[in-house]
Amino acid sequence: MARTPMILHLLLVTLFILSSKTASSSASSDVDAFLGCLSAAIPPSLIKTPATNSYSELLMSSVRNLRYVLPGTTRPFVIVAATEPAHVQTTVVCGRRHSVRIRTRSGGHDYEGLSYASVDPHEHFAVLDLGELRAIHIDASRAEAWVGSGATLGELYYAAAAANQTFGFPAGNCPTVGVGGHLSGGGFGALSRKYGLSADNVLDAVVVDAEGRLLNRSTMGKDLFWAIRGGGGESFGVVLSWKVRLVAVPETVTVFSIRRSRNQSAVDLITKWQAIAPALPRDLYLRVLVQNQQAAFVALFLGRCDRLVDTMRAHFPDLGMAERDCQEMSWVKSTVFFFFNTANIPNEVLLNRSNADYFLKVKSDHVQEPMPRQAWESLWSKWLEKPEAALVMLDPYGGVMGSISPSATPFPHRNYLYQLQFFSFWFENGTAALEKRMSWVRGVYEDLTPYVSKNPRAVYVNYRDLDLGTNELEGGVTSYAKARVWGEKYFKGNFKRLAAVKSKVDPFDFFRNEQSIPPLPAKKW
Known about the structure:
This protein is α+β, with helices and mostly antiparallel strands. Helices cover 33% and strands 19% of the residues. It has helices at residues 3-39, 55-61, 85-97, 153-163, 179-185, 192-195, 217-220, 222-228, 266-276, 305-315, 331-340, 373-384, 431-447, 480-491, 494-505; strands at 47-48, 78-81, 101-105, 125-129, 136-139, 144-148, 167-168, 202-208, 214-215, 238-245, 247-248, 253-261, 284-291, 294-301, 327-329, 359-367, 391-396, 418-426, 473-474, 477-478. α1 (3-39) packs antiparallel against α3, α9 crosses α12 (373-384) and α14 packs across α15 (494-505). One of its GO terms (molecular function) is FAD binding.
């Protein structure tokens, strides 16, 4: 009698091994068939496998977080370096045909590396690299531009200014961010208080859908056009290019950066900044960066120094801003200043696409009511004085942001005072460094719980955070119920509508990753 359970156990083990081998063989067969499908329509020089000499170079070209190239990270079995829309269409069609998932990368700035890595060690996936789809065509007469998803924000800023010094575009402060990912998540930056998000200024787009069809605004329909402008990348299709509205900026703008240490009333100034910055005139953007035991108050003003001095004296006299703090320059030069903290370098630096060389973990929040002074004092004492402290960033909303409906695009966080980010970045490799830095950023996040957004705790989707939760499959597609755990933090009430759009345009959930939008179950309609 004792032998029966043992025989049953051996039988089950044998069946498991056989089924695993069958699954592995099937996956290998799918991969081979997928590669064959690609090579029938895409030049071999654009198909990079690990056996290709240029595979690692291409993979690393847009890696912005070294955490996702550590040994053990699941890498793509192939990268397709698309140079024309047909290459993207072929990759999607072949992927659907042979059950191979596609991840799309423009700038590679996803904080969690979702555009080029997977947390599932068993996933076989391909990467569509859009870096060569970066053409920018400016229509100066209409103040519009068509921009390839593979272009960077810096390239767009440079091209707009080259066409006309009074052209700008509301988007982020980091010039190496890819246009595709940035606009897909909404796109907040120094001009957003004046002109709204990047997504608010999108006029049209070209998308490859899950069927491999090439669609524009008129053919994709209003629901899909709504979803791609802030619903996060890689859920609805591959956006190849965007038609955007360029906005008016003066020929001369003014910037300043004023640093205050803790013994120079930094805590008091930050406490007051919380209510002041969102209420400032729309022409003035004033952020705070807390780093190296100092708070830097950094401003962009769409006007000249004398007006800025008057404005600051009227609204924020405690900062002590004076004419000597001003630097007047062109708007495009201000984008250089904001990222490099100096204007004394050529504007051509905006065209540099080189990647950062560090490990990174970021968490973020939104603030509805000013945090009390004691909360900032505690944060500084407990966390910002630690050696592993890196950067805390505060970006004000207000202005036109509060006048746009939270449902106008998927980005719902219009009515907060400001957004808050906690960066931990480090250069040394190893488990000890990783655990120490991750503990710091998670500790800050936990301690601020009483003072930040609630029900849900609101997060900007362009600041991806897998700590919020990851997708699980249910019946072969992403579980809507499980995805709500993270999805409503990013999208609040817009999440259900995004899932409904997903059900229409990609019901079989081909475009998916750890935090992609799930199809909405029929009973939820």
